[in-house]
Amino acid sequence: MALCLGGGFLGIALGWMVSLVIGYFQGTWMNPSLISIVLSCGFSVAVGVGFGYWPAVLASRLDPIAALRYE
Known about the structure:
Elements (H helix, E strand, L loop, with lengths): L1 H25 L7 H27 L3 H6 L2
Helix pairs in contact: 1-2
């Protein structure tokens, strides 16, 4: 979850810097709202946990000997 949240913050920082550069050249100022930052971090964590939890549950249901024997 920490990795997903870190990726979300990195994406927000990168998006904010790109919007600053675009805003500089267009002569406008673009500020992301707090709700968009919270939603993007929440979505990042939800996707990361969802796509990490599902394979872990499937792997935990396997027989270890059969899983190692399968190629």
